[in-house]
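Researcher: We're teaching a course module on how sequence relates to structure. For the next exercise, students receive a sequence and then see the predicted structure as tokens, so they can try to spot secondary structure elements on their own. Here is the exercise chain.
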Amino acid sequence: MKIFITGATGFIGSKVLNKLLESNAEITVLSSREIPGVHTVPSKNYQFDENYLAEQGCADAEVLLHIGAYIPKKGSEANDLEKTTGNISSTMALLETKWGALKKIVFISTVDVYGSYDGVIDENSPTIPDTLYGWSKLYGEQMIKNFCQQNALDCEILRLGHVYGRGEEVYRKVMPVMIDNALHGNDIQIFGDGKAIRTFIHVNDVVNAIVNAVELDGSNLINVVGNEETTINELAEKIVKFSGADIKIIHKDYSVPNRNLRFNNHRLMTLLLPRLTSFDDGLRDEISYMKEMVHDNI
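Model: And here is the predicted structure for the students to work with:
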């Protein structure tokens, strides 16, 4: 199988690439920097015409695995107009390309498309994003769906949930920030009462789901999400316990109401993954990894 991948140097994409390289697949990546040992096509910031990828020897790709996207590293970046609309233009550049053998597109989206929906989320939940980032991914989904319908291609849309694991520290998310504070002996601060519910999924499970989606028959919309609910308070308590840090958990006044993020991942478990990494095991591994990083920087 010949697979064309975007976003192969990111937190998730790099791990997907390594997993696929273990198979017999023939891999080409679109990237702004050369990846050793892999056929790399310069991305040109997606400023290319319909013939560019064919001229680079990519027209015979059978699967387009579109992982590459602008992803906010913190909440304040989720409404960056220029960067979020870049998600739409980059997808358009791929869809306007002259593909000669394409059979399937796997598009990596996000649960941010559900916005502030406060029930248990499944694939039928309403999609009303709160941010330009969420809207850019939802629009990308529809672009991909329409293109695949018009060209009789299979289409897998994977909406990724709250991913954690080795490499996550590049994002200023609650888990790596708490771990970093604990490992440096700083108290963990929680804004609000800490009762908000989160449902995390380990990056290794996400990678396996994406790789399995390449082989999945038909067209599917799947939330790639965990099923172990934990409150922010419980997360902080586990980080203190697993890290062995002698610190306190401090609550700060916060006027914004709690938002609970809970999912039904039946479709994921039925179609892509037989089991998931336990949250405690995954959290211990991330703490161990970040301890090594702290030690290496001393």
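Model: If you want an answer key for the exercise: The first helix runs from residue 13 to 21. The radius of gyration is 20 Å.
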